Amino acid sequence: MTNTLNAVVTGSTSGIGLGVATAFAAEGWNVMLNGFGNASEIEVLRAGLAEKYGVNVLYNGADMTKPDEIHTLIEEADASFGLVDVLVNNAGIQHVSPIEDFPDEKWDAIIAINLSSAFHTTKAVMAAMKQRGFGRIINIASAHGLIASPFKSAYVAAKHGIVGFTKAIALEGAEYGVTCNAICPGYVKTPLVEKQIPDTAKARGMSEQDVIEKVILAAQPTKQFVTVEQIAALAVFLCSENAAQITGAAHQIDGGWVAR
Ligand code: NAD
Fold this sequence. Notes:
alpha/beta, 7 strands, 260 residues, binds nicotinamide-adenine-dinucleotide, 8 helices, Rossmann fold, 7-stranded parallel β-sheet
């Protein structure tokens, strides 16, 4: 394993992905950012990380619902970095609604972004990782990859799917120095969670404050949000040599939620 790694982090213009990309840059690793947002704000982000940590930070705005754009992203990372050592499949969206009213297009988008994009990125990096004898693939799943909540049918299906995908890829990479793990966070206060508070309030007939106290934090025995920095630190560890024998696992980081 070389000291300087080259990483691709999907959905890294915000929230957990940005936290992971920042932690990687702080380790001295080169990073390719991806995700949506205002172009000039993303450029400030990219240039700021590159300058602060003295690393190569790229950005590719591939839409994770589009396999051809995903392939171009990996090709660009390969061409710029020479190789991709670390792939973090993080891009994700949420939609909260009873199944009777769940829009078909939201189901399709959640399966595409939260699950199928990881198939396309992993397929594009796997041969080179195996050939080199080193690779780290980290899928940002969720506590909802292990247990369910009502009104999140597509998200729970996609996240359970990615935990299964993680195990299959771990087995395929096992003899080649390529590990694949899932990180299963509980609630993290990012835009993804902030946006679902009003929808959950509507679906459950509760106030938004009650959603925070009685649904979100009630799920986590510690009664605290998980932080982006805690997830990023776990991702850095999973890339280390000490984590070489950790593969095919779903790592809960959820304040004890799934232990109930
Ligand atoms: P976020 O909304 O802050 O960030 C999501 C990122 O994905 C953004 O950069 C966004 O631009 C990008 N994205 C969305 N659609 C995309 C697309 N089609 N193509 C490319 N990029 C796209 O959300 P977050 O909370 O940081 O979530 C990141 C991941 O963590 C998701 O997979 C989510 O399911 C998972 N997760 C979040 C929580 C939580 O409580 N926030 C808990 C468990 C798991």
